[in-house]
Design brief:
The structure holds 2 protein chains of 2 kinds.
Chain A (H helix, E strand, L loop, with lengths): L6 H32 L5 E5 L2 E4 H21 L2 H4 L6 H10 L2 H17 L1 H4 L2 H18 L3 H7 L5 H29 L5 H4 L6 H26 L24 H9 L2 H22 L15 H25 L26 H9 L13 H11 L1 H21 L1 H38 L6 E2 L4 E2 L1
Antiparallel strand pairs in A: 1-2, 3-4
Helix pairs in contact in A: 1-2, 5-14, 12-13, 12-14, 13-18, 17-18
Chain B lengths: L8 H20 L5 H16 L20 H24 L5 H4 L2 H4 L10 H17 L10 H5 L21 H8 L10 H6 L36 H14 L1 H23 L11 E3 L11 E2 L3 H4 L1 E8 L2 E8 L10 E3 L4 E3 L6 E2 L5 E3 L8 E6 L5 E9 L13 E2 L1
Antiparallel strand pairs in B: 1-10, 2-3, 3-4, 4-9, 4-11, 5-6, 6-7, 7-8, 9-10
Classes of the chains: A mainly alpha, B alpha+beta.
């Protein structure tokens, strides 16, 4: 898709953007250093002789570092831009190890680490450092034509923005929650409860809203001018673009469709997601955390939500946007989108595993000339392992959780049988997506239940 | 621990009234003494001190600016401003300072750090200072150093509780009772005002209005001949009137008619008056031009079929595969190098035979009916489909043996 531009031309084209990009990063860090210094928040990190090394000085040094990179990037010559590019060895290694398994498991583990050590990660300097590193990673990777093609595609620019915005807001909410949790531990009320008797509306809130409104309009205008609308060739019922991607906000759903039947992943599971969200007020009996940020007081609700949102929705959107190429194959960040990439994916249904591979016999099949009812019974027999497995999953796991987990026992006592079973089954349905993904990756499982005669697969 | 920073409106009011009463009593009363002043200061600080401990919380004695609430910031700002304004005045007076009398009064409120005072406390403290400066003119105001001296004290002096106030949450009735005392300030009743010699506006007399003139006979409505709704005919008549006569009925009927027209229009919209489908039967050339193992893709764009010559179940045959993925209906592509059909939407893959082998597609591609027409060409009939999972591919109409 970008084979017609050779590397030197590409570098020349991207150099202008990259130069200003690094200048902007330098300005960002310089302003931060200035704000720290003028605001009197400079803290001494260490001293070298007479020189006092403060955090303001640190960010100034970072700003100068970016300032040095800017002319290198702006030069447009391959020899100089080599210094502001990701080394090829790193790119090759990243492409080699990157796959759907590593990506999904890795982002999950990273989120878990971020959660466990949240007291550390909510510190301002840590977040600022992470932001700088993310920007640096993007800048260094931009000299790769494949990476640049994916990231700067007009379709995908909002997703890049989404990653940073989502990171910022998640960080902000976590920082507030951690602060409140610390206050609550000390026996103080949360910050939001301290001065909640009045809100400064005029002019504070109104001016804020006005500024936000103007800024948003300006961004939309600039966006509309700078990025071309991602229009494609006229639609044709017999020609599907390759890769064919849903709107970005549905890419998580499209990723789900890879693992499930369209009837399940497109209709049933999204409906259950909506119904489950509607059921939250009836399932949640925890009265704490109302009107203020907290994690410790609502750990279960927080974790379930963040798992569903960050892991099952956002990381899948990012994966669908940047890492799914032609034929819906997985491509690394720096990999060329080759429509002929061969990925072996021979998928097998559970019934085939059970009858043919484990029992070594033919799949049960109704004798010739039998009626529809008899055929249906044989189909049920054929799919019995999957049906029993899923029935057991939904009926036996909730009581098992009650028996073996103190936490779920408490939930059960609080909620009663029906409410508990509804909640547990919603949770289990939610867990079924990653379970299915793992099964697909690890032993090529296609469907637990495959009644293709009636278009009923799960 | 209850909300130490917050006071109910009730408590703030009570504190203010106490201050008001105390201040006025003092200005009209006798010389201020130390005890009086301390009581005064107690009154000032009791707003915060009685309800919540005035000591800073043990765990967080020093608050970072970022952790201060708006209330606290405001309080701090006011406290600073007031302190700055008061300082020179006090130092001017400090030459004749009798610190003994001033000491208890001044530090009580400022003993707390400004950042930890509630608005109520600040208000109370402000009033206390005002009252103090009124009352203790002859004596002296605090030395500037007195206040800092009191600061390190861990706790304010134990309160000699004023008789009039009680600690803890205040009873509304008691506040009301206090409010009804004759000496209170503020709005007074008319009798009180009269007693105080103030004029009250004379009671307003009702204005004299001339009687309405009698309505002339011709203006009176003619007695309607109304059928009572209690008779059966009357009932139906009134029902008809409601259904068709009232403006409301007209509105609803027209609304219903409009909706009906919309629904009908929508139903018509769902069946556009066009025919874009190519004929369901079409010829795709002679069978002998198709080589062994060849997949003809040139009919995909127009008709949505692949013509495939392949060996299936031991028979070399030509068949027409429908180019619609059985997963979600995208159009797969034939990849010659990999010898497979591959769907771009979710990655389903099919062998040349049409059997699904990778990705989420649950069943094989479908076949269309194919036959040799009278002129010897292959003819595909899209009106009939054959599905492998239903065992229909063994139907001789689903393929042409070579």
């Amino acid at each position: 898709m970008h084979g017609h531009v050779d590397q030197a031309t590409f570098l020349y084209q991207i150099s202008g953007f990259l130069g200003y990009y690094y200048l902007a990063l330098a300005a960002m860090n310089g302003i931060a250093a200035l704000a720290i210094w003028r605001g009197g928040r400079a803290k001494t990190l260490f001293r070298v002789g007479p020189v006092v090394f403060t955090n303001a000085l640190l960010w100034t040094v970072v700003a100068f570092f970016f300032l040095l990179m800017a002319p290198l990037a702006m030069s447009g010559s391959p020899e100089l831009m080599k210094w502001v590019s990701m080394p090829d060895s790193f790119k090759d290694a990243a492409d080699a190890v990157m796959g759907p398994v590593l990506y999904s498991a890795g982002s999950f583990i990273i989120l878990v680490i971020l959660f466990i050590f949240r007291r550390f990660f909510v510190k301002t300097w840590v977040a600022w450092l992470a932001l700088n590193l993310a920007f640096l990673f993007m800048g260094l990777s931009m000299t790769d034509p494949d990476f640049a093609a994916i990231v700067t595609k007009p379709d995908n620019v909002p997703i890049v923005g989404l990653i940073f915005l989502l990171g910022f807001f998640t960080w902000l909410a976590t920082a507030k929650a951690v602060k409140n949790d610390e206050r609550i531990e000390r026996g103080e009320p949360p910050l939001e409860a301290v001065d909640n008797e009045k809100i400064l509306v005029w002019p504070d809130l109104v001016y804020t809203e006005l500024i936000c409104m103007i800024a948003l309009t300006a961004v939309l205008l600039l966006w509309g001018i700078a990025l071309q609308a991602p229009l494609e060739e006229p639609a044709s019922s017999v020609k599907t673009p390759n890769p064919s991607k849903a709107p970005w906000y549905f890419l998580g759903l499209q990723e789900m469709l890879v693992y499930y039947d369209p009837w399940m992943a497109g209709v049933v599971l999204p409906s259950i997601v909506i119904v489950g969200l509607m059921a939250i007020p009836y399932l949640d009996f925890n009265r704490k955390g109302n009107g203020y940020y907290t994690i410790n007081e609502r750990k279960f609700a927080y974790l379930v939500f963040q798992f569903g949102f960050l892991v099952l929705w956002v990381t899948l959107i990012v994966m669908g946007t940047f890492l799914r190429g032609p034929n819906w194959n997985f491509f690394g960040f720096y990999e060329t989108w080759d429509a002929h990439k061969v990925v072996p994916m021979n998928n097998v249904d559970l019934s085939e595993y059970f009858w043919i591979r484990w029992l070594g016999m033919a799949m049960p099949k109704a004798p010739e000339g039998s009626g529809a009812g008899m055929e249906f019974l044989y189909i049920l027999l054929r799919e019995a392992p999957g049906i029993l497995l899923l029935l057991g999953y939904f009926t036996l796991v909730p009581p098992a959780l009650v028996l073996y987990s103190k936490f779920f026992r408490g939930l059960y006592r609080h909620m009663g049988l029906i409410r508990y079973m509804v909640m547990a089954n919603l949770l289990l349905l939610m867990g079924l997506l990653p379970i299915k993904m793992v099964c697909r990756w690890s032993f090529d499982l296609k469907y637990f239940i495959a009644i293709k005669e009636y278009f009923l697969n799960f | 621990m209850p909300d130490k920073d917050k006071m109910s409106v009730e408590e703030i009011l009570a504190a203010c009234r106490r201050m008001d009463g105390g201040g006025s009593a003092k200005s009209s009363g006798d010389q201020p003494t130390e005890g009086d002043a301390s009581a005064q200061s107690q009154g000032a600080s009791s707003a915060g001190a009685t309800e919540a401990p005035a000591t800073p919380p043990p765990a967080g004695p020093k608050k970072k600016p970022s952790e201060m609430s708006v209330e606290e910031i405001l309080a701090a700002a006011r406290a600073e401003k007031r302190g700055g304004a008061a300082a020179p005045q006090e130092s001017a007076e400090s030459s004749e300072a009798a610190s003994e009398s001033a000491q208890p009064a001044a530090p009580a409120a400022p003993a707390k750090k400004p950042s930890e005072m509630s608005v109520a406390e600040i208000l109370a403290a402000a009033r206390a200072e005002k009252a103090k400066s009124q009352a203790s003119k002859p004596a002296a105001a605090a030395k500037p150093k007195v206040a800092p001296a009191a600061k390190p004290k861990p706790k304010p002096k134990p309160a000699a509780k004023p008789a009039s106030t009680t600690s803890g949450p205040l009873d509304t009735a008691s506040i009301l009772a206090a409010a009804r005392k004759p000496t209170k300030r503020g709005p007074v009743s008319k009798e009180e005002a009269a007693r105080a010699g103030k004029e009250t506006p004379a009671a307003r007399t009702a204005p004299k209005v001339p009687p309405m003139p009698q309505k002339p006979e011709f203006l009176k409505p003619a007695a309607k001949k109304r059928e009572s709704a209690e008779t059966r005919r009357g009932f139906f008549a009134s029902l008809t009137g409601i259904a068709f006569g009232s403006a409301m009925a007209v509105g609803f009927v027209s609304l219903a008619v409009t909706h009906l027209l919309w629904v009908l229009g929508f139903a018509r919209y769902m069946f556009p008056n066009i025919l874009i489908e190519p004929p369901s039967k079409f010829k795709v050339g002679f069978p002998d031009v198709i080589g062994p193992g060849q997949v003809v893709t040139k009919f995909k764009a127009r008709f949505g079929v692949w013509i495939v010559r392949n060996e299936y179940e031991g028979v070399d045959q030509i068949y027409a595969l429908r180019s619609v993925c059985t997963h979600l209906g995208c159009t797969p592509n034939w990849l010659e190098a990999e010898q497979k059909f591959k769907c771009p939407c979710h990655g389903s893959g099919f062998y040349k035979s049409g059997i699904n082998f990778e990705g989420p597609a649950p069943r094989p591609l479908e076949r269309y009916a194919i036959r040799i027409a009278d002129d010897g060409q292959l003819e595909v009939d899209k009106s009939r489909k054959f599905q492998q999972e239903l065992g229909q591919w063994s139907d001789p109409q689903s393929y042409v043996p070579v």
